[in-house]
């Protein structure tokens, strides 16, 4: 979807119904290049070890019939998020558009939500760390990144992907979606049967990870076919 | 080989949470035994007093460890906001009420003569909340959808049994430290037998727990991990269960005759090992908790296990 | 951004420019907030990338502000040089640095300006075409190389692709190809030229059902996305390709006769006496046999010529024997068809470990999928035209060509395309970067239409070097330190300059000067070439003075640099042409042409300076500005599609001083008109104009032919051999001139002929998407994702092989080659690798002290690469980069 199409869709839908944001990841297109991981990291200034968007690599079969596949994972923005269920302070909430967020100033950092997420999508950072060795003054970029991190997410609290809410509000797509060279990530309104995501899920029988857990994730995967 | 960081294992809850869960179990267990003994009469006065002395302080200290583990402890006051769905929120209330009841019970018992119905009601309520506290530590883990190992249904039972065992051992330990040897003979003998029975029960429960965990792949992985941990096998199975069991039986046997001297050090050592074992149990269960593998299209995806890279050393900067 | 962040940000702009972390040079947009570079994304306006970019570009902010960047000029105070020596750098002023440099260059010029040697990096491919080439011409030295670039990845590939497609490499027409044979290359899967654009195209192709058959020793990204992975023994691709050709021609009888007749030299009649063309007595042009008129005709006689597909002509003979002036001649195709017979499926299986049945099957599938005889109609600027539809392609690059059989392997793989006519037409194998173009309408530049030589074979109009790959240069007595003027089939070589007898060699070949000053721009040749000790001791230490433009103090500067200059990175400078020469790395396919530029997002930090700005300064101080400008003017024509107009040329008498921005501005105006100078192009970072369809599918719109029979190699070989013998070169190197022949063959590497069973493993390296050359491991973002990946920093090894050797996952191991050189790594067990192979990623395994994040990560594979003659392709002098090793646990 182009940015202007997205904006138009979002606008027209708000006038009638609330969009229900979701994502489709096409595993046939994805070749595991880590662009999404990096785009997310830089757009959200996540510190070392924190990967709101991550890639796992899997291998199956035995030589010569081996196959390898990359699996991009992120917060699934579940419709019944187990993280929200266990949050004692109510810091983890779900917006009307289906995005699961953490309100920084309500979170006490118990990390129960991190235990509750079967997709490993949540992180907590005790203390901000530089990417460079201890003892060096921070570069201007890291100064900026540190401040941006503390404003948006913070230390001592749970943090996670928020589908780039700020970018969506500007009519752009999430950073990982924009960056993907293979166009393997598609973002859109799941409640609209004519949106690209809905059509792809139907056409290619998109599936979610661990459906038996009952979280009702909103990130769908198209199997390599 | 470099030490590896296995990406599948959770790394957020460690010693601080283990100690908190342990002390929660000790406090709840000791109080329960004390309150029940309180109903049973004067002969168990010592154990009652020791147990009541343990209840509230254990929970208080445990809560401090919990606060230390929080990323933003200043907001801990918000912890009770969602008792509808969150076990930590429920736990916040359970523990708060329990602490009040335990403190009240202790104060009434020590400094007043109030007894009878009032004390019975307080003790009764205290027992309820103590049991809830013990169960809560296990149910809390069981509700963690991200860690299949903790969801093996019998985890709350393991924690309750362990809590009772550790509570019992704490009382015994307290008695050896603060009571008079001569006066304790028979009650310690009974307690030793009770301890042996409880430990035997714990052995059955833990065995059941581990074999149940072997049924599913994600849980099996954690179970295999925990059984490979030397601290678990030696510190818990051997030193935390087997040795105390033997020691308690020895103590029980050695007090068979009237007038036989009680070996306080033997009791103390047995109790202490049992306590340490209980702590190791919780810590091991925590650090062996693994995320489920993500499966799709015939693949199993795991986070990478790689050599642990330390933070880069300074190296040399170009001359500035 | 949160509202808190938004409130404190006064400046929030996106500057369009181009990335510089690899030679793909994708268009990017860089975000600058309050003067700080904070984010990078793709540039949707640039055809190179079209809004996408890769993990390296996204990680750029750390590169700009890395505290380990060289920010001030440095001087070495320890006169001792070598690996592991502490250089004891001190900071000096630019004045002192330039004074010293200019003094050394003046002294060099006094002795002989050819003593100056330029060493550059392929990553900054666009910068070097100005500062390096201009200087070489202006100062007067022919000596130049790009260390590993070229020798690991180009001598064979670019040479052959240049001859066959006028481009740097080849790639399927992803938009329309249905079935491709990928010989182990990452194109479309993370690396190679036009990496990002190709990845998008390849993903789109996959989504519509495109089948990529991948021949690869391990489960690379391309193998894992391919329709079929066929494990192959490393370095044997040439044998497989020839086997496929044999199967096509002799087993299944599939070939595109039309294409061969009119677009190749397949019908050229060959004399049996010396393998040369049979030439017409009067015109001296090669002859073909007209089957209708039943007699010989000159190759471009109108009766036997079809330029466009719908042209009509007589058929010419491809097979048989024909008498011309009493000589029984055969068409080249007939010779080729017979020649490949020895590459039977059984033989191919023996060499490549690909089952014979698979060879035969894939040849058939490929041949059938080629849909020989089918056509499509395209809309050209002259109306609708029919062209052949051949939706198959083979493609290859570094891995395939990095062997002792490099030149012929590259040719063989591409030749499969030409057998079925799938070259530069719909669905087939395109040259990559897009090579053929008629230029921007307003100016007719860049003009890049190839034309035929007198023998009818294609001459490229544009090329990355002064000399196009064909026609062959005539070998001359050498004037270069690597004797390269003698070798027209090669771009560089290493076996001369890294030989311990290099100085003797120069004496023998009567080179009247010695290596004196080395100017390094961005290359870390200690790591990127081969065995570090050999490069340092035999080559680098022979220079009296070395100064280096670098981003970091790398192992090169530590070992041998006298002065280090703080280079401005791609975010801190102007470059007037980035996506051009298009033959290098411009996207192929029907999308627009895009001439992209670089512009600074921030002024160079600290005391960093742009390489090109400094070169202008140095030339000024040397008093050669005019000559330098002339050098720049002269290098534009061949590379950028047409000479500069007088109006925009740099003033060659030196009376005017042009700033670097002025150079950029003039070039752009010259290409695109007065209104399209630097100021204009800066707005979007790129100047675009539509591509004509007939420039995309150009084969059947151009009269050129390509060779399937390399008749002229025979002449070249004889000329070189003669010259070589005159100098007595055999006393140094026993060169095998028999490779200079007309028909392709596969020859084994030392890896394939090693008899010592102790060295039982075949080791090679592969391109990881997050790494380029040796620089990227220092970027902590890229280092972090490398650690997230299970394979990038490890040595991939098959589970069973490891078990047999008692090696476990994560174990530290040594890999040792038969020459006794060894490197260390840790093992990543997998099932996805041929069990006799070991796969290592990138130029890693840094040991330098000044790049602490890179230090110790990965394995330094190149230390196992020997640069002697047995590990060099006698035809193109490409390096052999597969190695036999033994692997054992390190304590």
Question: Counting H and I runs of at least 4 residues, what is the number of helices of chain A?
Answer: 8
CATH superfamily of chain B: Formate dehydrogenase/DMSO reductase domain
The low-confidence parts of chain A are none
What general form of chain B does the structure show?
Answer: globular
> N-to-C terminal Cα separation of chain A, in Å?
22 Å
Biggest sheet of chain A, in brief? Answer: 3 strands, mixed
* Biggest chain pair interface: A-C, 54 and 64 residues
Helix vs. strand class of chain B: mainly alpha
User: Tell me, what's the shape of chain A?
Assistant: globular
How many E strands of chain B?
A: 4
Helix content of chain B: 55-70%
Query: Largest sheet of chain B, described in full?
Result: 2 strands, antiparallel
The appropriate CATH architecture of chain B is Up-down Bundle
Radius of gyration of CA atoms of chain B, rounded to a whole number: 22 Å
> Any idea how many domains of chain B?
1
The strand line-up of the biggest sheet of chain A is: 8-1-9
General description of the model:
The complex is a heterotrimer of chains A (225), B (320) and C (891). Chain A has helices spanning 3-16, 35-44, 82-86, 112-116, 140-152, 165-169, 175-179, 196-203; strands spanning 21-26, 54-60, 67-73, 92-94, 100-102, 123-124, 158-159, 185-189, 219-222. Chain A is globular and about 50 Å long. Chain A starts with a helix and ends with a strand. Chain A contains eight helices and nine strands. Chain A is 29% helix and 17% strand. Chain A is of the alpha+beta class and 225 residues long. In chain A, the strands form four sheets. Chain A has a three-stranded mixed β-sheet with strand order 8-1-9. Chain A has one domain (18-222): 2-Layer Sandwich (Alpha-Beta Plaits), CATH 3.30.70. By secondary structure, chain B is mainly alpha-helical. Chain B has a single domain, classed as Formate dehydrogenase/DMSO reductase domain (Formate dehydrogenase/DMSO reductase fold, Up-down Bundle). Chain B is built from nine helices and four strands; from the N terminus they run βαααααααααβββ. The radius of gyration of chain B is 22 Å and the shape is globular. The model of chain B has no long low-confidence stretch (mean pLDDT 89). With 891 residues, chain C is α/β, with parallel strands linked by helices. Chain C has 30 helices and 33 strands. In chain C, strand 15 and strand 16 form a beta hairpin. Chain C is globular, with a radius of gyration of 27 Å. The relative contact order of chain C is 0.16. Classes of the chains: A alpha+beta (225), B mainly alpha (320), C alpha/beta (891). The interface between A and C is large, with 54 and 64 residues.
């Amino acid at each position: 979807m182009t940015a202007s199409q997205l904006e138009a869709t979002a606008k027209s839908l708000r006038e009638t119904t609330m969009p229900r944001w979701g994502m489709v990841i096409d595993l046939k297109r994805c070749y595991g290049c880590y662009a999404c991981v990096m785009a997310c990291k830089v757009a959200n200034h996540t510190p070392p070890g924190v990967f709101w968007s991550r890639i796992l690599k899997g291998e199956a079969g035995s030589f010569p019939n081996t196959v390898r596949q990359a699996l991009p994972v992120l917060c699934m923005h579940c419709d019944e998020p187990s993280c929200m269920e266990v949050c004692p302070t109510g810091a983890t909430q779900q917006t009307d558009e289906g995005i699961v967020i953490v309100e920084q100033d309500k979170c006490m950092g118990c990390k129960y939500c991190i235990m509750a997420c079967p997709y490993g999508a949540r992180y907590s950072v005790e203390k901000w760390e530089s990417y460079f060795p201890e003892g060096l003054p921070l570069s201007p970029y890291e100064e900026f990144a540190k401040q941006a991190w503390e404003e948006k997410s913070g230390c001592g609290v749970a943090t996670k992907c928020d589908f780039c809410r700020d970018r969506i509000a500007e009519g752009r797509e999430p950073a990982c979606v924009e960056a993907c060279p293979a166009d393997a990530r598609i973002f859109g309104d799941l409640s609209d049967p004519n949106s690209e995501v809905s059509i792809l899920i139907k056409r290619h029988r998109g599936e979610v990870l661990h459906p038996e857990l009952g979280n009702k994730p909103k990130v769908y995967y198209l199997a390599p076919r | 080989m470099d030490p590896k960081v296995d990406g599948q294992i959770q790394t957020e809850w460690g010693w601080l949470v283990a100690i908190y869960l342990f002390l929660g179990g000790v406090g709840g267990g000791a109080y329960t035994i004390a309150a029940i003994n309180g109903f049973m009469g004067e002969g168990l006065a010592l154990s009652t007093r020791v147990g009541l002395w343990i209840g509230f302080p254990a929970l208080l200290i445990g809560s401090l460890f919990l606060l230390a583990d929080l990323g933003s402890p200043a907001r801990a006051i918000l912890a009770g906001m969602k008792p509808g769905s969150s076990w930590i929120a429920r736990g916040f209330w359970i523990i708060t009420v329990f602490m009040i009841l335990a403190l009240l019970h202790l104060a009434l018992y020590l400094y007043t003569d109030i007894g009878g119905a009032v004390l019975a009601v307080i003790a009764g309520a205290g027992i309820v909340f103590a049991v809830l506290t013990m169960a809560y530590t296990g149910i809390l883990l069981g509700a963690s959808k991200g860690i299949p190992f903790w969801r093996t249904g019998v985890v709350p039972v393991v924690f309750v049994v362990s809590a009772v065992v550790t509570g019992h051992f704490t009382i015994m330990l307290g008695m050896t430290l603060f009571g008079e040897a001569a006066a304790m003979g028979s009650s310690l003998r009974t307690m030793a037998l009770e301890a042996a029975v409880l430990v035997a029960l714990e052995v059955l429960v833990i065995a059941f727990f581990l074999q149940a965990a072997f049924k599913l792949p994600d849980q099996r992985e954690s179970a295999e991990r925990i059984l490979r941990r030397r601290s678990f096998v030696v510190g818990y199975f051997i030193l935390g269960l087997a040795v105390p069991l033997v020691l308690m039986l020895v103590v029980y046997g050695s007090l068979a005759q009237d007038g036989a001297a009680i070996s306080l050090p033997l009791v103390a050592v047995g109790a202490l090992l049992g306590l340490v074992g209980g702590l190791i149990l919780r810590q091991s269960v925590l650090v062996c908790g693994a995320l489920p593998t993500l499966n799709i299209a015939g693949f199993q995806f795991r986070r990478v296990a790689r050599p642990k890279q330390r933070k880069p050393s300074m190296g040399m900067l170009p001359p500035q | 951004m949160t509202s808190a962040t938004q409130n404190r940000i006064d400046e929030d702009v996106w500057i369009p420019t181009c990335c510089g972390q690899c030679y793909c040079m994708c268009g990017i947009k860089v975000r600058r907030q309050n003067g700080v570079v904070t984010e990078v994304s793709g540039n949707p306006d640039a055809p190179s990338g079209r809004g996408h970019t890769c993990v390296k570009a996204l990680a750029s902010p750390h590169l700009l502000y890395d505290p380990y960047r060289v920010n001030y000029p440095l001087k070495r105070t320890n006169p001792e040089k070598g690996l592991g020596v502490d250089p004891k750098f001190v900071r000096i002023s630019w004045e002192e640095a330039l004074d010293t440099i200019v003094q050394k260059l003046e002294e060099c010029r006094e002795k002989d300006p050819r003593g100056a040697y330029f060493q550059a990096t392929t990553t900054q491919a666009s910068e070097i075409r100005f500062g390096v080439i201009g200087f070489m011409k202006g100062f007067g030295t022919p000596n130049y190389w790009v260390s590993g670039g070229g020798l690991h990845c180009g001598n064979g590939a670019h040479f052959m692709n240049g001859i066959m497609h006028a481009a740097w490499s080849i790639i399927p027409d992803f938009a329309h190809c249905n079935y491709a044979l990928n010989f182990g290359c990452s194109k479309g899967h993370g690396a190679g030229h036009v990496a990002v654009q190709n990845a998008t195209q390849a993903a789109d192709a996959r989504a519509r059902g495109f089948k990529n058959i991948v021949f690869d020793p391990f489960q690379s990204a391309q193998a894992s996305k391919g329709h079929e992975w066929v494990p192959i023994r490393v370095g044997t691709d040439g044998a497989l390709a020839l086997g496929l050709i044999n199967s096509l021609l002799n087993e299944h009888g599939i070939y595109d006769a039309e294409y061969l007749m009119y677009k190749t030299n397949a019908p050229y009649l060959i004399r049996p006496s010396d393998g040369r063309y049979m030439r017409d007595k009067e015109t001296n042009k090669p002859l073909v046999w007209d089957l209708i008129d039943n007699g010989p005709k000159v190759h471009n006689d109108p009766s036997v010529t079809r330029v466009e597909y719908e042209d009509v002509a007589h058929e010419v003979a491809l097979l048989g024997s024909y008498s011309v002036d009493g000589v029984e001649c055969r068409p080249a195709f007939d010779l080729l068809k017979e020649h490949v017979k020895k590459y039977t499926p059984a033989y191919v299986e023996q060499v490549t470990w690909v089952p014979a049945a698979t060879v035969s099957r894939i040849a058939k599938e490929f041949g059938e999928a080629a849909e020989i005889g089918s056509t499509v109609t395209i809309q050209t600027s002259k109306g609708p035209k029919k062209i052949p539809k051949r939706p198959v392609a083979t493609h290859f690059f570094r891995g395939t060509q990095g062997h002792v059989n490099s030149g012929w392997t590259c040719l063989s793989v591409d030749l499969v395309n030409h057998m079925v006519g799938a070259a530069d037409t719909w669905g087939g194998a395109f040259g990559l970067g897009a090579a053929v173009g008629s230029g921007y309408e307003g100016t007719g530049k860049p003009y890049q239409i190839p034309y035929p030589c007198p023998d009818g074979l294609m001459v490229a109009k544009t090329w990355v070097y002064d000399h196009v790959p064909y026609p062959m240069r005539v070998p001359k007595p050498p004037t270069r330190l690597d004797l390269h003027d003698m070798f027209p089939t090669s771009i560089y070589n290493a076996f001369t300059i890294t030989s311990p007898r290099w100085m003797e060699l120069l004496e023998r070949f009567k080179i009247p000067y010695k290596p004196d000053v080395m100017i390094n721009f961005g290359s870390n040749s200690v790591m990127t070439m081969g065995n570090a000790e050999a490069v340092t001791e035999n080559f680098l230490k022979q220079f009296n003075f070395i100064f280096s433009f670098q981003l970091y103090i790398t192992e090169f500067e530590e070992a041998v640099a006298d002065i280090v200059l703080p280079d401005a990175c791609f975010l801190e400078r102007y470059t007037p042409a980035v996506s051009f020469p298009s033959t290098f790395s411009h996207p192929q396919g029907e999308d627009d042409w895009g001439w992209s530029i670089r512009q600074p997002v921030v002024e160079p930090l600290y005391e960093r300076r742009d390489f090109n700005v400094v070169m202008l300064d140095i030339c000024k101080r040397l008093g050669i500005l005019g000559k330098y400008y002339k050098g720049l003017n002269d290098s534009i024509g061949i590379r950028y599609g047409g000479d500069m107009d007088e109006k925009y040329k740099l003033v060659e008498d030196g009376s005017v001083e042009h700033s670097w921005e002025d150079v950029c501005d003039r070039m752009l105006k010259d290409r695109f008109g007065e209104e399209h100078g630097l100021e204009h192009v800066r707005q979007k970072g790129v100047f675009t104009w539509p591509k004509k369809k007939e420039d995309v599918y150009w084969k059947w719109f151009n009269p050129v032919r390509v060779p399937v029979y390399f008749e002229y190699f025979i002449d070249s070989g004889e000329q070189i051999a003669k010259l070589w013998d005159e100098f007595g070169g055999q006393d140094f190197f026993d060169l095998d001139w028999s490779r200079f022949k007309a028909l392709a063959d596969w020859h084994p590497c030392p890896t394939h002929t090693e008899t010592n069973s102790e060295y039982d493993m075949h080791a090679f390296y592969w391109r990881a998407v997050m790494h380029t050359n040796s620089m990227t491991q220092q970027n902590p973002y890229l280092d972090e994702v490398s650690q997230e990946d299970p394979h990038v920093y490890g040595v991939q090894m098959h589970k069973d092989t490891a078990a047999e050797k008692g090696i476990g996952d994560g174990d530290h191991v040594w890999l040792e080659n038969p020459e006794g050189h060894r490197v260390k790594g840790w093992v990543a067990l997998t099932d996805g690798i041929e069990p006799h192979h070991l796969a290592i990623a990138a130029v890693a395994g840094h040991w330098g002290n000044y790049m602490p994040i890179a230090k110790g990560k990965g394995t330094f594979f190149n230390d196992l690469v020997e640069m002697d003659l047995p590990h060099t392709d006698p035809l193109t002098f490409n390096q052999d980069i597969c190695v036999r090793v033994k692997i054992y646990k390190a304590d």
